[in-house]
Write a structure and sequence with these properties.
Layout (H helix, E strand, L loop, with lengths): L1 H6 L4 E3 H8 L3 H13 L4 E3 L8 E3 L4 H27 L4 H33 L4
Antiparallel strand pairs: 1-3, 2-3
Helix pairs in contact: 2-3, 4-5
């Protein structure tokens, strides 16, 4: 489904378009849309005067996806640290939770740096 949206010139398709092009059920499209929307890879829009929703992507889908992941990781780190504290840092389970929190923190910080670099390079290039 994502590929169908990527290859369209407009970057938008309706559910009916996707059902026809992919030869899948409307329920399959609905489930895929929900997943991709949750990941920040597409958005729903309804142009004025149209009854049908359109699913849209643009050149910043990967940026939004990374930002969504960073937000998710930050929330997860909070929970992991809480669990590590409750289990005790000296227990094997507590150590696993703590290690997981440390890893996700590093990954989120690194991804945020990549996003910042990308945005700076776009600004330097005069991109919108």
């Amino acid at each position: 489904m994502l590929v169908c949206l990527l290859v369209t010139d407009s970057g938008t398709l309706t559910a009916a378009d996707l059902v026809q092009q992919l030869r899948v059920s409307p329920a399959s499209v609905s489930h895929s849309v929900a997943f991709l929307e949750q990941q920040g890879l597409l958005r729903r829009e309804r142009p004025p005067g149209e009854r049908r929703e359109r699913y849209a992507i643009d050149g910043e889908i990967w940026l939004r996806s990374i930002l969504t992941a960073v937000q998710l990781h930050r929330g997860l780190v909070t929970e992991l640290r809480s669990a590590a504290g409750a289990l005790g840092p000296c227990t094997p389970a507590g150590a696993r939770f703590s290690d997981s929190a440390d890893f996700l923190t590093l990954m989120s910080e690194t991804l945020q740096q990549v996003v910042d670099q990308w945005q700076q390079s776009r600004a330097n290039d005069g991109a919108p």
